[in-house]
Each structure stands twice: as C-alpha cells, then as structure tokens.
Design goal:
single chain, alpha/beta, Rossmann fold, 9 strands, 12% strand
C-alpha cells in the first residue's frame, strides 16, 4: 500500500467502564473525538464520518457503530480508519490482530492508532503492536477479577453491594452500603405478608404429615427396593443429561484453551532465548498467561466436581434406600433427622373450595427430590 497525499477518513471512538483506570477524563468520548479531529485536520485529510460506541466493552466486537464502520469500508466510503490507540479498536488479541494485519490491508484501508504510533503504512513502527494487543486483552480480565474480589470482601463484611435496594428498603443517604426501611413500601410489604399467612400450618399437623411421608418412603425402600432403585437411576440420569452436556462442553473449551496457553508459553520462552523478546515484555506476558492458566485449572476442578456429583450410580441409590429404610418405625421428628433426609418443604396457600381448609405440602428429599411422589401413592 503506497502513501497517499489525502484520505477519506473515519475516526472511531470507544469507551466502557473497563477503561476507567483513574484517567477517565482523558479517555472520554469527547476528548477522543476532538484529538482525532485535530489529527485529521493537521494532516489535511477529509473527515468523512465519526463512529462512536459509548459503553461497549473492547472484548466484544458486536458494537453498532463498529459494524457501521465495516459497512462503510466495504462500500468504499472511507479508506482510512484512525483511533486514539489500539485498545479503542478492541481488547481481544486475536480479533485486533485480524483487523490490523489482514482485514484493513485486504480492503486497501490505512489504519492508524495515534498514541501507539501504529500505522499499517509504516511496518517498521508496528513491531511492538502484538504485545500491546495482548496487554489490552489482559487488562479487562484483570480489572474484572479485582472488582469481584472487592465485592466479595465487602459482602463478607455485611455491606450491601446491589445496584438497587430490595423492595421495602432503600439505601442510607449516609452510606450506600447500608439498607434502611422505606416506610411507604414497607407498608405494602406488610400487607403482602399478611396475605401470605394463608400458607400458615400448625406445627403438629406438619410434623404428622412429614413423619407419615418418611414412613411411606421407608416402606417403599424395604418392600420394593429393586423396582425403586431402577426407577431412581433412570429418572435421575435423565434429569442430569442436559446439565452434564453443558458441563462437558465447558470442560472441553477450558482444556482447549489450556493447550493453547501451554503452546504460547513455550513460544514465549523460545522467542526470549532467541533474543526476539525483551525480558520486560516476556515477564508481563508470562504473568498474564500463568494467571489465566491458574483460573482455568480452578474452573476445571470445579467442573469436574460438578460432573462427579451428577454421576448417579446404583451404589449411591442403594445407600439412600438403606438410609431411608431405617425409618419405618420413626415416632418423633427431630432436627438431625430432618437435616439428614430432607432438602426442603413447600407449603401451598390454604384453600376452602369444598368448605374444608386444605393445603398441599411438597417434600423434597435429599438426593432424590420428589421423584417418588407418584409411586408412594400406590402404597399409601
């Protein structure tokens, strides 16, 4: 591509919350646009259009004005794209590399990142660009991780971290991390609570129901163990299939990324040993890859644990049947028994459709949930 005396220029500006690094004013859309307009005027080129994506992350290239920029390139409206720096184009190493090293060149478009001294017409000035792209990709991941750590730490201290207070409360004017009662809304919540007292049930009634339900499950476990075991294995495995497929997909993606990182780390060492990569840049890139590698290994461990928990073996079913089978003659309900057997109890709103107060009670047992609801009716 030969140098031209003039260009039809499109200037591109982008800003997101990820870019707030303590120098937000200099990064603002207004300042970006003015700087680029001054640059185009100084060069004596033609400013054809401005493309602005305010509030869009650099890791995502599905941005409205960026796509409009690409359409205008295809229609030959512009032959030069200028940004403040490479990170304004994006913070994805592979995608930015594609546009700067392939797309713009193939389209006959000159790309300039002013503050990074990057110019597709001057190859000798672009050697450091790949390293800047890697750092630009690493930056939002690092910021995101730090934000999550701060939020977790604040939550452990009892601070409210939501953007909006729950209905019935409001943020304290003195401290946004403290909730106080919002009286007008609280009155409405009190009315709602009163209406929900229809879910009330006497303790003795509930205890009798739960004891009887446990006895029925115990009777099933002892009287029809083979049939119940087969039914539970088939039902649980079927319900876990979709979740398991999703976890296995995440596992494959993480494994593939780890393989890429290992290859990249090897290439870094090779380039360093050959003198192609400065020591300072090597340390920064290596640190970034090791950080991502550690995160992925932790993620893989969590995924594997979830997959292991979803494996429904006949042995586990047999253990549960043996456990529940011990309670055929249960006489009293205590906390340890409830904690050992039951996940949750749901009590529906009371109804008087037949003139008699009735309520539906659903017991979710640990490990099997409510899978024997229909089967137990046959033996009750």
């Amino acid at each position: 591509m030969k140098l031209q005396n003039t260009h039809d220029v499109g200037i591109y500006c982008r800003l997101s919350r990820d870019d707030n690094n303590g120098n937000l004013e200099s990064m603002s859309i207004g300042n970006q646009k003015q700087m680029l307009m001054d640059y185009v005027k100084e060069k004596g080129w033609n400013l054809r259009d401005s493309y602005i994506d305010d509030g869009y992350s650099g890791t995502n290239f599905d941005r409205p004005d960026f796509k409009r920029l690409l359409r205008d390139i295809s229609s030959r409206k512009i032959d030069c794209v200028i940004t403040k720096d490479l990170s304004r184009l994006g913070r994805n190493y592979a995608k930015v590399g594609y546009y700067t090293e392939e797309f713009f060149i193939e389209q006959g478009v000159r790309f300039i990142a002013v503050n990074d001294s990057f110019d597709t017409m001057r190859d000798e000035e672009n050697e450091i660009a790949p390293f800047k792209n890697v750092l630009n990709e690493w930056y939002p991941r690092d910021i995101s991780k730090k934000v999550r750590q701060v939020k977790k730490s604040s939550a452990r201290q009892g601070k409210f971290m939501g953007s909006q207070a729950p209905y019935g409360y409001k943020k304290s004017p003195e401290n946004k991390h403290v909730l106080i009662i919002d009286e007008p809304a609280a009155d409405i919540m009190r009315q709602i609570f009163q209406e929900y007292t229809q879910h009330y049930i006497q303790e003795n009634t509930l205890k009798t129901f739960v004891l009887n339900d446990i006895r029925i499950h115990a009777k099933l476990a002892n009287a029809e163990r083979k049939r119940i075991a087969d039914q539970l294995v088939a039902t649980l495995n079927h319900s876990h299939e979709k979740e398991t497929r999703g976890l296995e997909l995440q596992k494959r993606e993480a494994d593939n990324r780890l393989a890429v990182i290992s290859s990249n780390i090897k290439s870094l060492y090779d380039d360093k040993c050959l003198g192609k990569l400065p020591e300072s840049i090597f340390k920064i890139l290596l640190s970034s890859y090791i950080l991502e590698q550690t995160d992925l290994e932790d993620k893989l461990q969590t995924i594997q644990q979830q997959l292991n928990n979803r494996e429904c073996s006949e042995l586990e079913i047999e253990r549960w049947l043996q456990l529940i089978g011990q309670y055929m003659e249960i006489k009293d309900l205590d906390r340890p028994t409830v904690m050992e057997l039951i996940e949750s109890i749901t009590i529906s709103e009371a109804s008087k459709a037949t003139g008699k107060r009735t309520q539906e009670i659903t017991i979710q047992y640990r490990f099997i949930g409510n899978l024997l609801a229909n089967t137990k009716e046959d033996i009750a």
